[in-house]
Amino acid sequence: MGSVTSTDVARAAGVSRTTVSYVLNDTPGASVSEATRRHVRETAAQLGYAPSAAARTLRRGRSDLVVCVLPDWPTGPVVDSLLDHLTDVLAERGLFVLVHHHRDSRALSDLWRAVTPQAVVGLAPFAADDARAMQQAGITVVGPVEPADAGAFDRSQHDLAALQVDHLAARGHRSVAFATTTDDRLRRFGDARYTGVQDACADRGLPRPGRTAVRTDEPATDAVRRWHRDGVTAVAAYNDEVALAVLAGARVAGLGVPESLAVIGVDDSPAAAVAAPTLTTVAQPVTPQSEHLAAVVLAALDGLVSPPWPDDPAYVVVRESA
């Protein structure tokens, strides 16, 4: 059986297709009585009529979509929370969020030309050419743009790592290592955070930290033993997943945490609070960031000035591991 059309609704309701169009599209100024409007809507509901998204897009020149572009990274608790909140806020405006994991193998323009969104939101910097092409097509662009805004993106990652070193140095640690991820998709984050650890150590007169890539699907035993042999007393991990692999490696190596090796992560993931020992980590202000992202998108769609970045900084959640 084919899908129900507006013609079917008009026939069943005993009205013209024009009247159905006026009612279902809430056409301003249409002279249709409230009783007829109610009758058409009830008939459409009974028949299971669903308006064509493609036709609506053609009429308006835009869909009801806001595309959120994620680079080719795995998502974690911070990104998940951002997307959840953005979806809830935009739903109140009758908008849908389409999450797109961008791959370099296909141009971003293929996406926005296919779905014609109202806005495209980037959680990482857009290429300048992509941003310009979307703006020229009348699409609202929300997010950093290369190269001007890339520095701020990298600095935010840099500052997270500096907080780790601040915490470790305050507890007397003089030899710090950086444990990064083996996932090449996160290289930019890892590089920025390693630079943050390096700079923070230099500012405090600490030795230059080494960088070791750690798998997250097995204990980082070899790395832990090497750090212990080299006199490293603390590890700043790229994120909580890497930190948990370091904790597991310390258990296998028979080293006490934090007695022989202090460990600090980033993200304050749910697993951090139930690790053994519980994991000290840097928490990002997810709720303020989520609210800010949603407010920036709405301001951009309404042609308003974007609100300032929230003052709530990242902070250290102190637990047993450091």
From TrEMBL:
SUPFAM superfamilies: lambda repressor-like DNA-binding domains, Periplasmic binding protein-like I
Top-rank lineage group of the source organism: Bacteria
Transcription regulation recorded as keyword: yes
Recorded GO MF terms: DNA binding
PROSITE patterns: HTH_LACI_2 (PS50932)
InterPro entries noted in UniProt: HTH_LacI (IPR000843), LacI/GalR-like_sensor (IPR046335), Lambda_DNA-bd_dom_sf (IPR010982), Peripla_BP_I (IPR028082)
Keywords: DNA-binding, Transcription, Transcription regulation
Domain HTH lacI-type intervals: 4-60
PANTHER family hit by this protein: LACI-RELATED TRANSCRIPTIONAL REPRESSOR (PTHR30146), LACTOSE OPERON REPRESSOR (PTHR30146:SF153)
Record's protein name: DNA-binding LacI/PurR family transcriptional regulator
Organism listed in the record: Isoptericola halotolerans
